Amino acid sequence: MASGNGCVPHVRVVSRRLVQASDASIQPRVLAVSNLDLLPQAIQVSMFCVYPKPSPSPSTTGAFQDVVTAFASGLPSLLNHFFPFAGRVVTDPCSGLPEVHCGNQGAELVVGVADVELSCLDYGSVGASIAKILLPYAGDVALSVQVVSFPCGGFTVAWGTNHVVVDGRGLSLLVSTSH
């Protein structure tokens, strides 16, 4: 399993589900994509966050399941404020351009378990190590939140989306808002 700084991680998917916005009053709509968003084209982008083992609080055990529960319970409310992330990226059949169909189809929440320690990852080589933590998701999904646990008790959260939905600054805002 050796690779550069340590190991080649493998992630086993424990669950994969769609999470919808909780506000049923939000009306479906189609969002056109701006010309600036079309420059880099429709490509998947992600933000990767690494966390140490959570400390227990009076209301939690400090276990990874508490982290998963927090994401599962908080994501519907977050999607109320960032509703396009609950939609799908679709190509308009007439223009051939991508657009975002905001119909509350749901953001993806993926839970996985890695087989190596966080300290084993080669943070200097994205392709050989870190990229293997990111799990593939469908190209039309506007948001895939991937929470992966490690044997040391730490975990990662990968926020995957499409560049036509949001740029790097917008993705950073989404991630910081979710904390």
UniProtKB/TrEMBL annotation:
Q: Family assignment?
A: Belongs to the plant acyltransferase family.
- Keywords linked to the UniProt accession: Acyltransferase, Transferase
Source species, please? Answer: Oryza brachyantha (malo sina)
Q: What is this protein called?
A: Uncharacterized protein
Question: Which Pfam families does this chain map to?
Answer: Transferase
- InterPro entries tied to this protein: CAT-like_dom_sf, Plant_acyltransferase
Can the keyword NADP be found in this entry's annotation? Answer: no
Note whether Transferase occurs among the keywords: yes
User: Which Gene Ontology MF annotations are present?
Assistant: hydroxycinnamoyltransferase activity
